[in-house]
Design a protein that fits this description.
The protein has 176 residues and is mainly alpha-helical. The protein has 7 helices and 2 strands, in the order αααββαααα. Helix 2 crosses helix 3 and helix 6 packs antiparallel against helix 7. The longest helix has 35 residues.
Length: 176
């Protein structure tokens, strides 16, 4: 999971301090992401150095200034490009879910393409698993394959529902 894009995506929602970002991850994204201060702050500093975010310091009485980070246009462009790319990590499902969560500004056609690509990946995975199950040799192999099949089938059903919602949202949002 890329903390870089997690941070950029969260900063599209509103400017946040590192503490606010960590709270948001723990509250809204716990199922798909984790973030420690040891990963957040170095990533924030790197994004700042690269011009993808900017920082504004807010003076506080009796405490150090609060640093609030805001995504820049450069950061927004980078995030949009990343959202359009297929996941390339070992944690494809988590990365897909993170992209889906952060895709609120992605054009509908790109969102549909992203969801369609994931549906195709899951469908291909299910086909491979069914073939593997036919040649499985031990009960343990069958159990693991059955587990993966059930997860994949549940995800496929969920994706179908998401696709319906995107289509319905499009019809509602389009002028009559």
């Amino acid at each position: 999971m890329s903390h870089r894009y997690l941070i950029l995506g969260l900063l599209t929602e509103c400017p946040m301090s590192g503490y606010d970002i960590k709270k948001r991850v723990n509250f809204a994204l716990k199922a798909v992401a984790n973030a420690s201060y040891g990963t957040l702050y170095p990533t924030l500093h790197k994004l700042l150095d690269e011009g993808a975010v900017e920082v504004h310091e807010i003076a506080q009485v009796g405490r150090p200034s609060k640093k609030v980070y805001r995504i820049t246009e450069r950061g927004q462009l980078e995030l949009q490009e990343w959202l359009k790319q297929p996941p390339i990590t070992d944690q494809i499902r988590r990365e897909f879910l993170l992209k889906l969560y952060l895709a609120h500004d992605l054009p509908t056609a790109d969102l549909q393409a992203m969801v369609r690509a994931r549906r195709e990946e899951v469908t291909d995975m299910l086909t491979r698993l069914r073939v593997e199950r036919e040649v499985a040799q031990t009960p343990q192999q069958i159990w693991i394959i059955d587990y993966a099949l059930q997860l994949g089938e549940a995800e496929l059903e969920w994706i179908r529902n998401i696709q319906k919602q995107i289509t319905t949202h499009d019809r509602v949002a389009s002028p009559a």
